[in-house]
Specification:
Helix content of chain A is 36%, strand content 14%. Chain A is an alpha/beta fold and 449 residues long. The chains are: A alpha/beta (449), B alpha/beta (475). Chains A and B meet through helix 1, helix 2, helix 3, helix 4 and helix 5 of A and helix 2, helix 3, helix 4, helix 5 and helix 6 of B.
Chain lengths: 449, 475, 449, 475
């Protein structure tokens, strides 16, 4: 029992101090009818060495990193994480701390979150950002709720090209809140259809939600959505599923977004089979008191020295209870720290440069794939590092063949878009070298796939 | 020493990240789409970044720094092997869209964790998807509502005791429910109270057991019976499950749905506020409503089951905080059945030991046997000192303060949860500090009111922060 | 240039402050005839991502952990290292610090070394231990020099069964110090020959050096060496090549050793292809001023609070210069810290228990191997976790065959003992499960090996 | 806060390590050989150990904590990727007796590092075996002696300048040499001095270049020529190689043998005093004498070459501090040729910048152009304050002090080596602190003499420690 310090002598001495005879009697308030007296049916305790061996065995059952040339994106992106990120995250002062309720001994966490909030504002072009949320999908759902709250409206226009996970999560969150969902179709170029949007918008619309990039990798024309939405006083909610794009493309803030949410996994978080990731949430400064989630603010101590505290807690559940802006009572503290460290390393030069690498590699892959007989790019709106490919037959079959050549060629679209059975989503990042791309193209051309 | 903000350290032209040479032709998007610059973004070299965050960390207090008796948060030791486990190649680099045939290890681990949590809690179904306790709560209450709706019931209220966590009412509201407060008696919910409140507008009771006073809800079985008889369901906030591991199972008590806090009970690190994980356990009746996907198996292997027509839907992207799940699985395997029971026993022993030692110095508002935590109040504190002063003074003694001013039913609450990780010596040192502070309060209250003195910063002006919010750095 | 912060503006501003125009002129004292003006012929700078990929590729060329069932010892031992060891070692306050010359900001290193010294004393049964040295072999060489220093004699009796690396290192260190080396043969049981020792000892002998365990895994009869050596006022130097044995076997101190040195790698240090490891060095308290290497001692600060400092520096090179007890000016600080953490985790119960596991596994393997047709155990003196096996033909061939079945069956003795061509050294630790041992035995029996 | 010793935390029955069940019959050695107990050995659980060392670490100051201008120690930033590199499976778990065919990766890396070091230094042969600088020195001087002996020379003396490291005389003594001190002139060794001292009893000159005053030995080429003409060899202490990377190569200067400090020049962490690595480079003439083994290659692959009949033998177990070699290899590959030259340039720029800023506040005993470090003295310090007081006061300003009282040729020496890792802002902050302290010395010398005040402990009584040595805990 290496994690529990008590020996039998300790136990007896402590029981004695308490004034009872047995451990049993400490549980006297638990009625015997509710006791579970049989031992739990779990594997026996294991030594650390055995446990690690078992874990390594399980992990090896997964076909992860190194083994395959992978072109998987669709909401989670393989980017290189410099070693210093994990080194700093592994400092126990960070990762074994709780929520910074006692600011005098939590300035590390608090200052880092303040820096995170600032970075997110800078990146999205917005005035205020919270301390982070569970992930892109749940942030997006919170954004929809907030848009309804501030507009006091209940109709929401959701782009069909928004990440399906985000769409589903929005619907789950709004399930019993009497919302009205309206589908915004996309056009032949893979971007939202502006004419449809004009038709759908009215004075009852709380918000329009679009992806940037959207699920097809397309950088939507935010300026147009913004203009149209604002004509009806609806809010523009922008969901960024690959935030590295913001290193290269105009920020949603400059294009008129009211709320910008997104998935921060690209910024220094491992793929980790889908989580924990990092939801970011930014808005206009005027909406600050309607933000969900935790906020850190600057203040001073008794001597006038700068310090940071959790603030505007009156929005939150522990004060406002059922009137709170959200039921969330945590953030993704350590994930936000990872992103802060990652962004600090890349910075003003590195982030755009990395984004350009991604863009250039994706361009190269697009051009080469489009040149393969039978393959085409069905959408022609601008994309970042991800794009849709149309193949000569069912995408599942194509991907299966590629897999046999140790290539994970992308994500088939048919589970979400049954009419797109021949299409799949291909993502190319800085982790894919030219040789990987060429091998992919060769596999497609050779007809093996 | 002070440490500037990242942005204040910045110097044009610095960068802590080098890219390999671009091995394809350079391309550029249409000019109209390209952003000029990211104004204010920092520019730093690797050493700047390493030092900055190393220094910041030195102003934090973690479980590895010392005793962290934050009530209701279960700040137990986070074994280091768990951190190795979740970083293993095959876990950390596994893309969530990896074909399931190539993710059998991850799926097997999730499946096993589901089974383990069922066994530990006595529930029939589990979702691993929610990202935190409050998120699990939301999933749970959405299932409650879906179940009620499936039966055609029109119930718009939930009962919430005064000993509940603040998330409970907020969660109920998110599900479109009205909140009806339930007064506790002698710290627990009685059958009579519930009988009085439980009408056919009530969808559910949300209860915490052991509750936030550290007390076992002795009447829980009868309370559940009454709620069920009148068509309601019982939601349990599982934050305090640590006290019951291997002792009693919420599923056996009549509870219908409960979230787990893996970051509390199963020792995944709190990370300065997240990420956690909030799996939810449900009875067989609620199983059809679980969020999608659920991990299941056939003879051919493990798979993600999406085909669940009654599901409330998806709570977030992908399948759960997998990295956190790996840690929890590792912890459960390290402890085994015996270790988990020992955990509950030692956690309760520690709380009662602290209680026994401090009863004579601090006012104890509820006298029923404590389980994993004990709540005192500041009523007997001398010199006009309040709970906040005590908390700040404890910092000078090298301890993290307990949870304060919660639960709300105790005025000036001091909520101490030592967890099983702590040895008697540590508890003794803490109790001695508490006793010393009680004396100081009478003899020299300034020591408390001016605390902390040994930290880099003194008490911070929270009012000012809220009145004139500065939520980001500006040049 | 991610490790160098200067940009060109910084450089110009700093040159200006210095009062020179070019970087070039800072090197004006380097005669131009000595300048190396061509760029160094080295691979171009590499991004971290590329570098890690390259390193992983190189590392995969090695047939290490996991792939093979390995029974290799002979001076380096595969023991499980709990995760907390590396976690703590990775704290930058420890690993990026220098020698604790400024005690007020080095109490972490200093207290840990003080604890290390104490643990080594307890383990070896000696009165004083230094802060560590490069490794077992070099510590052993230093021990020989010290024995000569304190006895003012120059003849040293070296067991032929001492680890060959230790023997060679002793000879290198003493190469120009006018020493006399005398070989102490071992008997048919693999232990030193006491009759030979009696014959070799005389009043000119500075020391007798034996292994415990020796190279053949044998726990030498120290009480007898001690008695014989001390009759001639010679020092008994004991070299411990597998210190885990001290968890189970009587300590050299209780058996009469004067100097105990050894290799500490077993205590939490990775195999790492031979280094860095950890030399420990313990002696009688009366010899403290003759110890080589660094020492940490307890003292008080201006307020009388306990603290630790480097002490007895008058023995050392930076004060005594050519009269120093050694030229060493460092210790294996971080390795000593690893051992301190490891030993603290195992402690009074865990260390003996782990030693018993090793012993039991080795016993099982010995018995099973001895039962295989054609194989025998040539030595019968007591061993710990390592032992010599005699095969039916050349050991190299046997080991080669085993290797083809993914078994690294041991270390052939012929490079050091040409007359032992059929013999090899087999080591069994807690890392070898019964299944490994059975597979090994099966491979031997099946005649494949 | 204080932290007890491990032994004082101990409690019977605790253990932080669990073994798996023994899967073979339990066996016991003959009773007479078995030890009863390890008296005093600690008993702790994992959390005790984690907290103990976490707390100890917080009393340390590392490069990641702040500026560490320890002269002659080259305390540059230690890139984190190097720590990942040496822990890779295939490196960390590679047994040194692994058949060489299965260790080709490790051998290739060592071979490449040998080649890199040759290119950087201009030498013809390299051994990677020595475990530290002083160990490399010993190997080098043993080779000198072996070379002399092979020629039949009877030379028993070595020349060592007054600017040398303390290890140089100790090393010479270990090789059986007598030490002849060489006075420097204006901080450097002149040809005339060497001509005067170099007779046929002298085996070698041991020189440091740049020397411990931070000065380039301008006459090095002629000095080497004179030594060679009279039958001697020149040993160079390579501790200060950082200043010359890509600028000039010791092998080209006529130096015959030099050790490298990988933990200085090539950024492997100092680890609180070790492990380092001290490879040695030699000219072709000395190559036959290199310690065994050396890594070499044939068409079939890499191998350890043991067949070197003139070798001085083995310096330690196995083949070198492999884990340190991996880090150095990684650093060299990260920097490339350009990066290494930039390293030297920026290191020298930084030292000269500090010199320029502090020249007016502190006495500068030598005026020749500094390379990578600059040596001041306490001569101008007011209020009777000494170098030691200055050093302790710097701690209160958040800096690690420079090397003090070394080199011995400068009384009250303050030896500052900033390295290339530091930015101008850091140097400015340091220089401002130095200037402030110079003012304080005159105005309020108590601030220096009572320093440090902000550390957990004040100045420690070193005399007491040496007089009544307590070198281990006793119950």
């Amino acid at each position: 029992m290496r994690y529990i310090p008590h020996n039998e002598e300790d136990v007896l001495r402590m029981l004695d101090a308490i004034g009872v005879d047995t451990l049993e009697s400490l549980f006297e308030e638990v009625p015997s009818s509710l006791r579970h007296d049989a031992p739990l049916n779990l594997p026996a305790a294991r030594a650390e060495s055995d446990l690690l061996a078992e874990l390594a065995r399980i992990a090896r059952c997964n076909g992860a990193g190194g083994t395959y040339r992978a072109f998987l994106g669709a909401g989670a992106y393989d980017h290189f994480i410099p070693a210093v990120v994990d080194h700093l995250l592994s400092r126990s002062e960070f990762y074994t701390a709780y929520t910074p309720y006692q600011p005098e001994i939590s300035q590390g966490t608090l200052q880092a979150i303040f820096e995170f909030q600032t970075l997110i504002c800078q990146l999205t072009g917005m005035g205020v950002a919270n301390a982070s949320m569970y992930d892109g999908a749940s942030s997006c759902a919170e954004a929809v709720l907030m848009a309804c709250r501030v507009t006091r409206r209940r109709k929401v226009i959701l782009s069909r090209a928004l990440h399906p996970d985000y769409l589903e999560t929005i619907r789950t969150y709004g399930r019993y809140l009497d919302m009205e969902w309206v589908d915004l179709p996309f056009g032949e170029d893979g971007a939202f259809d502006p004419d449809a949007l004009s038709r759908l918008l009215d004075e009852e619309c709380a918000a329009v939600v679009v992806g940037y990039p959207n699920f097809f990798g397309v950088m939507e024309d935010l300026a147009t959505v913004s203009r149209l939405a604002h004509e009806h006083d609806a809010r523009l909610v922008v969901a960024v599923q690959e935030p590295l794009s913001l290193g290269l493309f105009k920020s949603p803030g400059e294009l008129g977004a009211d709320i910008v949410v997104g998935e921060g996994q690209s910024f220094g978080l491992p793929l980790s089979y889908g989580g924990p990731y990092l939801g970011f949430f930014a808005a206009r400064e005027s909406d600050v008191r309607n933000l969900p989630g935790r906020l850190v603010g600057e203040t001073v101590d008794t001597e006038g020295r700068r310090g940071f505290v959790l603030t505007l807690a009156t929005r939150e559940q522990h004060i406002r209870r059922e009137k709170a802006t959200s039921n969330i009572c945590s953030n993704q503290g350590l994930c936000a720290l990872a992103a802060t460290i990652y962004l600090a390393l890349l910075g003003r030069q590195g982030l755009p440069e990395l984004a350009r690498h991604n863009y250039s590699k994706a361009c190269y892959a697009r051009e080469r794939i489009a040149a393969v007989d039978g393959y085409s790019l069905p959408f022609n709106a601008p994309v970042f590092n991800e794009f849709v490919v149309e193949g000569p037959r069912a995408a599942e079959g194509i991907l299966q063949k590629l897999q046999e050549r140790d290539i994970l060629g992308g994500v088939a679209l048919s589970p979400w878009f049954p009419d797109m059975s021949n299409r799949f989503l291909v993502c190319v990042t800085e982790r894919n070298c030219r040789e990987d791309i060429d091998a992919f193209v060769e596999a497609l051309s050779g007809g093996e796939a | 020493l002070n440490e500037k903000l990242l942005f204040e350290h910045s110097r044009p032209g610095r960068c802590g990240y080098d890219l390999p040479p671009l091995d394809v032709p350079s391309a550029e998007p249409p000019e109209a789409l390209v952003r000029d610059d990211i104004p204010g973004f920092p520019e730093l070299s690797e050493i700047d970044v390493a030092r900055h965050f190393t220094r910041l960390s030195s102003w934090n207090y973690g479980v590895d720094s010392g005793f962290y008796p934050l009530g209701s948060c279960t700040m137990k030791y986070n074994p280091k092997v768990n951190e190795v486990a979740c970083r293993l190649p095959g876990f950390a680099d596994l893309h969530p869209h990896t074909p399931q045939k190539l993710a059998q290890g991850a799926l097997a681990l999730m499946y096993e964790l589901q089974e383990d949590l069922k066994e530990i809690s006595g529930f029939d179904g589990i979702t691993l998807q929610p990202g935190a306790g409050a998120h699990g709560e939301l999933a749970g209450m959405l299932m409650v509502r879906a179940w009620q709706q499936a039966r055609g019931a029109q119930r718009n209220k939930v009962l919430i005791p005064d000993t509940a966590h603040g998330t409970n009412p907020a969660t109920a509201a998110l599900c479109g429910y009205e909140v009806v407060p339930v007064p506790s008696e002698n710290g627990v919910v009685t059958v009579e109270t519930i009988e009085g409140l439980m009408d056919d507008g009530v969808a559910a009771l949300m209860i915490t057991n052991p509750n936030t006073l550290g007390l076992f809800e002795t009447y829980i079985a009868d309370v559940c019976r009454v709620v069920h008889e009148r068509g309601g369901l019982v939601y349990c906030d599982g934050a305090n499950l640590n006290a019951l591991l291997g002792i009693a199972r919420p599923g056996d008590m009549g509870i219908d749905v409960m979230h787990f806090n893996l970051h509390k009970t199963f020792s995944t690190p709190h990370g300065g506020g997240g990420p956690g994980a909030g799996p939810v356990g449900v009875s067989a009746e609620l199983e059809p409503f679980l969020p999608v996907p659920v991990v299941d198996r056939t003879a051919e292997g493990y798979f993600l089951d999406w085909d669940r027509p009654h599901s409330i839907g998806r709570m977030k992207g992908f399948y759960g905080h997998f990295g956190v799940l790996v840690r929890a699985w590792t912890y459960i395997r390290a402890m085994g059945a015996e270790g988990l029971r020992r955990t509950a026993e030692m956690a309760v022993l520690n709380a009662n030991y602290v209680r026994a030692r401090l009863e004579s110095s601090y006012h104890l508002p509820y006298v029923a046997r404590s389980l994993h935590e004990v709540v005192f109040s500041d009523r007997n504190l001398g010199g006009g000192c309040k709970t906040l002063d005590l908390a700040k003074r404890l910092i000078d003694y090298g301890f993290h303060p307990p949870t304060i001013y919660f639960p709300l039913v105790v005025s000036g609450a001091i909520m101490i949860e030592p967890t099983e990780s702590e040895s008697q010596e540590t508890l003794d040192e803490f109790c001695e500090a508490m006793e010393a502070i009680a004396r100081e309060a009478s003899e020299d209250p300034g020591l408390l009111k001016d605390a902390p003195r040994l930290t880099r910063l003194g008490r911070l002006d929270e009012t000012r922060a809220a009145r004139r919010p500065r939520l980001r750095w500006q040049p």
